[in-house]
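Lay summary. Proteins are chains of building blocks that fold into shapes, and those shapes determine what they do. In this project we predict the shape from the chain. Here is one chain we studied, written as its sequence of building blocks.
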Amino acid sequence: MSENSIKLTLKEADELFDALSVFVNIKMPLKMALRAGTIHRDLAPRIQAFRILKLETIQKYGKEMEQPKGMWQVLPENGDAFAAEMEPSLSDEIEIPGAKKIDLNLDEVDIDVEGSVIAALSPILNVIDS
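And here is the predicted shape, written in a compact code that computers can read:
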């Protein structure tokens, strides 16, 4: 991986995207905000496209739930076929050129954020704990 790029699998990117969407709205130092914003901006259209593909695949192998309306569920008998169809996409590697990991110096940065957000962001964080 180049020092000026971040590589993630699509599965990693999808798992961290919602936490990143929360994180970019927290008041933080400029350098952190710039790096987080760059990553978020680049991932947004990729994650949106992936989630559309995922929904279409769920609809192919599932049925709409009665409650809540509009939610879909993969039928148990189609679980293996669904997983087999999704797996190649999940392992796709994506690169965010020009992006660097977000430096999070625990001695210098004081932000209010839930631990689950930080845990989800671990692939794009460079935690500094001196």
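What the prediction tells us: The chain has four helices and six strands.
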